[in-house]
Amino acid sequence: QGQEKMNCNPKKENGTHVVLCELGNPMKAGAQITVDMELSVSGLEDMGDAITFQLQLRSKNSPSPVNVSVTVPVEAQAEMELRGNSLPATTVLPMSWHRVEGSRQLDDHGIRVEHVYQLHNKGPSTVSGVTLHLAVPSRLGGHILFYLLELGTEGGMSCTNPPNLNANQV
Which of 27, 113, 120, 146 is the Cys-Cys partner for 81 at CB 3.0 to 4.6 Å? Predict the structure, then answer.
């Protein structure tokens, strides 16, 4: 009926973290209680999608304890932010400019524009196994809009090159 705080003591037994809580002494026969526990557990990023707690209920009046397994879903949350810019920020082609077919000189194909993207984890959890799909329009109205020359990454990331990357070997 009333709410009481339990007295709990954490300890370590055989490499396992144990929390021992005293619920009441003595308890009346047939008493039913509900216990709400809030546990703070760190380092769950690599635990999968659930964590299981083993509970053991013991009474001094009963020779055998009752074992209960409680599985709690784990959901890591992280907010990702994608930032990008182009160098130069603005590109204007002259009206009379035409690309030179078959040339292997970069200047004959257009003005070099470098797009830089940064993927940031704003937390609170760490992330792994992130996949970023970036679609770059290469054609517009049947004409080449962007000629994809090269892709590069930093910071331990890997990149899958699109099939039309530097198709003319410029």
Answer: 120
